[in-house]
Specification:
Blueprint: H1 3-14, H2 19-35, H3 37-48, H4 57-61, H5 65-80, E1 88-93, E2 99-106, E3 109-114, H6 119-130, E4 134-138, H7 144-160, E5 168-170, H8 175-182, E6 190-194, H9 197-206, E7 219-223, H10 229-241, E8 250-256, H11 263-271, E9 276-279, H12 281-287, E10 294-296, E11 310-316, H13 319-329, E12 334-338, H14 342-351, E13 356-359, E14 379-380, E15 388-389, E16 396-403
Parallel strand pairs: 3-4, 3-6, 4-5, 7-8, 7-12, 8-11, 9-10, 9-11, 12-13
Antiparallel strand pairs: 1-2, 2-16, 14-15
Helix pairs in contact: 2-5, 2-7, 3-7, 5-6, 10-11
Length: 411
């Protein structure tokens, strides 16, 4: 029996577990994670030793005692959430007396291909377990030591709980393993890639298993002519610099031409974080001599996910031009408007085609935990099945249960 067949058998075992039993496993893992933080940090240090600290992805890879405590808290949060399984989504009775019930059920086996974020190993396992699915994980080579230490911990907990370790499988960090996962038709029900555009495009192009696209974020903030400067300064700073390597980080600031005189004040806090601004000619002229890290933008700056201490800045002639820019360059992840004009906010939220659309808030809130989902398995940027932060309900499917009393269909 190969690993995918074992995962399928493990998923069948999960169907027999009660919600209380699953919650107990998650709480056990939360406690075990805190107890094992030393070995996890040692493994993570081996990964970090091979990474340039100047690389923005270094922060994505790095684990700390505080981050491990956050991971343990997230596991407890998932355990505290209501089960997404067995919910009656709809029910009706046909004229012949036949009753149809739409019920939420597990996917079965979910594959996740992800890059250098070892916390994802905890996130996807906890969510898939709570949603009744086995998970097959293929992490990136940058985090391989960390991921293997985390997977070993998960397996210890599963064994102590008397459960099959096949419900959480970590594949080797190789291209061959990814190819096998993407070809496991009939054994794996769904694949979710988490990472940059290159990874997502590769999985979408090569997978024979259905794919939900997640992760790539080209995020904009539009400072409208009615925008409050103090709010704008705080929103832009947080959206750009809270964590520059994540998919909800701000990539492009659009500024209304009527507010160009306040552009230096709007971006001034970014200088302390050493953010390089790639500015259009108008923005460059307004910022020249007022902002220390300034470069001329070229065509490649628009529609670019920076994942670094860098950002594009463009002056627009109003909301029409801002909406046109976003429509052309957005990855449909997260977009924000900073405005006190209620009609401008209404129009922005109505016309922007993105999974998450904000008014007077930073895009950094696009996160399952911030939405109250406990954790997330990814941010879906597509429109089929799920969109935005994917929590427990989004990683279940449904079936129809039809009950009758001997009715037959007319010829």
């Amino acid at each position: 029996m190969n690993i995918f067949e074992q995962a399928r058998e493990g998923a069948r075992q999960l169907n027999l577990l009660s919600e209380d039993r699953i919650n107990a496993v998650l709480l056990h893992l939360a406690d075990a994670t805190m107890e094992a933080q030393g070995e996890i940090l040692e493994a993570n240090a081996r990964d970090l030793a091979l990474k340039d600290p100047a690389d923005p992805n270094y922060d994505r890879l790095k684990l700390t005692p505080a981050r491990i405590a956050e991971i343990a808290d997230a596991l407890r949060s998932v355990a505290a959430l209501p089960s997404p399984l067995g919910r009656t989504l709809a029910q009706w009775t046909r004229p012949n007396g036949m009753t149809i019930t739409k019920v939420s059920v597990p996917f079965g086996v979910i594959g996740v291909i992800y890059e250098a974020r070892p916390n994802v190993t905890f996130d996807v396992f906890s969510l898939c377990l709570k949603a009744g699915s086995a998970v097959v994980m293929k992490g990136g080579k940058d985090a391989d030591e960390s991921n293997r230490a985390i997977a070993a911990l998960i397996h210890r907990v599963l064994e102590q709980e008397g459960l099959s370790t096949a419900v959480a499988t970590l594949l080797p960090a190789t291209h061959e393993a990814a190819a096998q996962l993407m070809q496991a038709v009939g054994l794996v029900d769904l694949i979710i890639p988490r990472g940059g555009r290159k990874l997502i495009d590769f999985v979408r192009s090569h997978s024979l298993v259905p794919v939900i696209e997640t992760g790539a974020g080209i995020c904009h903030a539009y400072f409208h002519h009615s925008g409050d400067l103090d709010k704008g300064r705080r929103i832009v700073l947080n959206a750009k610099t809270r964590r520059v390597s994540v998919c909800n980080a701000l990539d492009c600031l659009l500024v209304d031409r009527s507010r160009i005189g306040q552009l230096p004040a709007l971006v001034e806090p970014l200088a302390a974080k050493n953010v390089v601004l790639h500015a259009c000619p108008e923005a460059f002229e307004a910022l020249d001599g007022h902002y220390p890290l300034l470069q001329h933008a070229d065509d490649g700056c628009w529609g670019r996910e920076w994942r670094d201490y860098a950002m594009s800045v463009r002056v627009v002639g109003g909301i029409d031009e801002a909406l046109s820019h976003i429509a052309r360059y957005s990855s449909r992840h997260s977009e924000s408007i900073i405005a006190d004009d209620a009609e401008a906010c209404r129009r922005f939220t109505r016309e922007v085609d993105a999974a998450c659309v904000y008014t007077n808030l930073p895009t950094s809130f696009t996160d399952g935990g911030q939405f109250g989902f406990g954790a997330e398995i990814g941010i879906s940027t597509q429109k089929l099945h799920a969109r935005g932060p994917m929590g427990l309900p989004e990683i279940t499917t449904y079936k129809y249960v039809i009950a009758g009393d001997g009715q037959t269909r007319e010829p």
